[in-house]
Amino acid sequence: MPSYTYISPRALCTGLLLLGSATLWPGLVRAQGSAVAPSGAGAASSTLGGAGVEALVAQGDRESAARRSAAALALFERAVAVDGRHAPALWRAAREAVDLGEVEGDTQKRSALYARAVTHARRAVEVAPTEAEARFQLARAVGRTALTLGPRDRVKFATEVRDHALEALRLDARHAGALHVLGVWHAEVMRLNGFTRAMARTFLGGKVFESASWAEAVRHLEESVRIEPTRLVHRLDLARIYRDMGRRADARASYEAALRSPLIDANDEYYRQSAEAELRRLPR
Q1: CB neighbours (10 Å) of residue 99?
Q2: Which partner for 90 in 49, 124, 161, 251 could form a disulfide, CB atoms 3.0-4.6 Å apart?
Q3: Stated pTM of the model
Q4: What is the dihedral of CA 74, 80, 83, 85, to 10 degrees?
């Protein structure tokens, strides 16, 4: 994913930060300053009070469960417009914005969605620092945002992604989304060649990359699968890790399990298509 002096723009760029890839992830995916409402979404009247906020969040949850992210985001941001300190509305808005950004083809629109996600998630962590889901959604939003930045910022955000995911796990050791993020973090760093990792450590301050390993990538993703065995995205990213480690039989089994998984999260159809294509290309 990045570039600079002697580091190929693709080398760092193609790994360094999917850091939270499918991962950061679509729905665990199904999951500064003041938050802002989207243009056209309409701000709810402040006279609605707490009950109005809860009603908007409940409506948003129904839209989210139906995998209608745009409608869900509008409702959650209306709730945030009423109560900018409502952590559940804030991290839900961040989740939906990332889901929409992942499948947005326009670069500027995608960046804007990720920026909204980061704003909401940072605010959620600010008002509820001990809520694991808020930490997870911030890790996910920052990871996706990092993909749009230059190499130095990618390394800086790589560390932030890891820190928030670790904090989410400190708060909830069985948070499957945070486990997923950390697994992908380890895998993306390991996908960089040794020279690129060394350059990142030496010149970009990415010493935290020394902690990365395939063993940790597998451990975290396998645990996320154990906790949420029907979540397609866990199976897909685990398959990719097995594939890149040369464990083809395990990769094939995990891809096939992904294809059998139900469509739960907003972008599961997209991830199912990815699983099908990657399985076809997997050597026998």
Answers
A1: 27
A2: 124
A3: 0.81
A4: 160
